[in-house]
Amino acid sequence: MAFPYNEIVLEHFRNPRNVGTIENPDGKATEGSPACGDMVSVYINVEPETKKITDVKFESYGCASNIATGSIITELSKGKTIDEAKKITWKEASEALGGLPPIKAHCSVLAIEGLRSAILNYEEKHGLVTSKEATTEEVVRKRLKRVMNPMKGLDMVATNLVKSVEVKDGVIRVVVDLPEDHQFAATIKEEAKERLENLWDIKEVNIDFVK
Ligand code: FES
Known about the structure:
The chain is an alpha+beta fold. The chain has helices spanning about 5-15, 65-75, 80-85, 90-95, 105-125, 135-145, 185-195, and strands at about 25-30, 40-45, 55-60, 150, 155, 160-170, 170-180, 205-210. The protein has 2 domains: about 5-125, Sufe protein. Chain: A (Alpha-Beta Complex); about 135-210, GMP Synthetase, Chain A, domain 3 (2-Layer Sandwich). A 3-stranded antiparallel sheet has the order 1-2-3, covered by helices on one side. A 3-stranded mixed sheet has the order 6-7-8, with helices on one face. Strands 4-5 form a two-stranded antiparallel sheet. Bound molecules: FE2/S2 (inorganic) cluster.
């Protein structure tokens, strides 16, 4: 049977580098793909003085392209400064893999976004975010678009789980259209909080459910 993948991709898929998690990482993020419902998590450790990525690990719940891209971006980003690592594009990742089938572009984009979000998570936690854009309802909704609704494999905004959003005096209040005792309520709450709580001008995040 002919695989649509070249040898480099297959090799990274079979022996992915740096798979796993980092305990108490300096930055971490999980990204989900609206195109296929797959997910990737990226963990980084950063040297505070030089801002170099000293360790990076990933976990993928995606396809072979996603796993291969996750693997290659850990190799491309390790030892780079966070500013350099942010600039790694999917094109570079794809080139380093000797080319991916175009239909699989979203899978590599997902892995790159995972890395960028883990870096952003690090920057937000360490007060390094330079663009001090005020947090608005729109900013909150944009972030919630990254939170997966496990029932549908799509994000919580697309699946109409966000009933209302309010931002006032540094406090965010999101009402989720699920009962509080729903089996996924706790997961959704935790993920939504993680996405919002490090915003530079936010001091409190409340995720509430319809009763
Ligand atoms: Fe979902 Fe590739 S098809 S990550």
